Amino acid sequence: MNTLIPDEQRVLLLANGRESLQNPDFDPAPVVKLFTPDACATWMLTEIDPDDHDHAFGLCDLGLGAPEMGWVSLQELMTVRGRLGLPVELDLHFRAEKRLSAYARNARLAGRIVV
After folding, report:
1. How far is the CA of 107 from the CAs of 12, 18, 83, 86, 111, in angstroms?
2. Does the pLDDT of residue 1 top 70, yes or no?
3. Is 34 in contact with 108 (CB distance < 8 Å)?
4. In this predicted structure, what is the pLDDT of residue 2?
5. Which string of DSSP letters, residue by residue, matches 58-111?
6. How much is the pTM?
7. pLDDT (tens digit, 9 = 90+) per residue, 81-113?
8. 33 secondary structure, DSSP code
9. How many whole angstroms separate alpha carbon 25 and alpha carbon 27?
10. DSSP labels for 3-24?
11. What average pLDDT does range 56-72 have in this prediction?
């Protein structure tokens, strides 16, 4: 079980994953924002694959100036460490204000995720 994402958000991510399979135009708001407190990486996740609970989809920014939408392994995120060795954290204060496509558009223009 992935401890990065609380059960309540995991339920929403899985529901979004099921909806995404049924509706190719589905554009949900991000459910969670994960980040490295000692590096510049950020992940805004919208869904978890209902057939493979290790794979989540969202806007991924590794701090290299090229944020992109794609799939990420939650188990791999648990192993990521920043410069000081700190693990990825859940942003407890994040509340999405727009759909993922809007965050992605702004991120492409800025070269990083802008909240």
Report:
1. 24, 26, 23, 24, 6
2. no
3. no
4. 55
5. EEEE-SSS--EEEEEEHHHHTT-B-TT-PBPEE-TT----S-HHHHHHHHHHHT
6. 0.94
7. 999 999 999 999 999 999 999 999 999 999 999
8. E
9. 6
10. SSS-HHHHHHHHHHHHHHHH-T
11. 96
User: Which residue shows structure tokens 């995991």?
Assistant: 10
Please report where in the chains the tokens 């806007």 appear, as a residue.
59
Q: Which residues of 77-103 are buried (b: 16+ CB within 10 A; e: fewer)?
A: beebebeeeeebeeeeebebeeebeeb
Residue 12 is encoded by which pair of tokens? Answer: 């929403």
Render pLDDT for 8-18 as a digit per residue (tens, 0 to 9): 999 999 999 99
Q: Residue 26's Cα: distance from chain center in Å?
A: 16
Beta bridge partners of 45: 32, 58
